[in-house]
Fold this protein.
Amino acid sequence: MRTTVREIAALIQGEIVGNADTVITGISGIKEASAGDITFLANPRYSAFLEKTRASAVIVSREVKQAPVSLILTDNPSVAFARLLSSLIPSESRPAKGIHASAVIGKEVRLGKDISIGPHVVIEDGASIGDRSIIYAACYIGQQTTIGADCLLYPHVSIRERVTVGNRVVINSGTVIGSDGFGFANVEGVHQRIPQIGVVIIEDDVDIGANVTIDRARFEKTVIGKGTKIDNLVQIAHNVVVGENSIIVAQAGISGSTVIGKNVTLAGQAGLVGHISIGDGAVVAAQAGVTKSVQAGTIVSGYPARPHQEAKRIHACVQNLPKLYETIAGLKKKIEELESRIGKK
């Protein structure tokens, strides 16, 4: 790779501050960058790195006006940097089109145009794979399952029977979609399994991380809405509905029959009980334990989860408990001394 700040600015529609002819030979993070690299700064909290970075150029927001290196001002540095990466760094090689000789294809399977089916893939009877989709090695596609066009399934993805996956869906390794919901009835002290006969629907443009589990519904459907992004190690239980364009971060867990609105953020390790709703645009902070429904546009944190400002005040009080204990102990001692003096009189 060899280009100039001028050429990069034209590519990402940015405004140059500094030397437009600076030569760029690499791309790196702002802390790791060296001479010849271009990097980006999206979060103003890290603006101090502009003075420390060894990069030759930095993509920044339009609020930044000067730095010791060449700058490219953009409306959204993260998006601009992503566009740069897509343009200058070769994308991963696409596997050869066609079906590998070791793949097992069932009866009445419908295969689209220009698909790639890797080694040891199993596609059961009646399944359907859309045009240009890529199924990497050792994936399993169950009976009557539909995979849309331009999908990407990395190795060892398991999608069970009667699941519907939309178009342009990316599913990372180890993920299981359509596993049985956790349904048992206690009969005379014995846990008996309740059949889970529903389905899972993954809508268009969803990204699913590694080792995610999305359970099939008991009767109807578990739904992941269009454009939603799911991080690694997330558990989504039966009959959960997740609205469009939501973000679910690593190790979050959603119990059965909970309804998540549109544009919701569930931060890392958030835990939600079942049969509640999270309103559109709500944010559940990291490690929050949600025990009741959350209104639209609300930020909640803590356990049990409550409005974030209230949770912060409670947390601050808890942090002061050791000091408060010492104060009370001191007051108690003084009271005992006063009572002792009064008693002597």
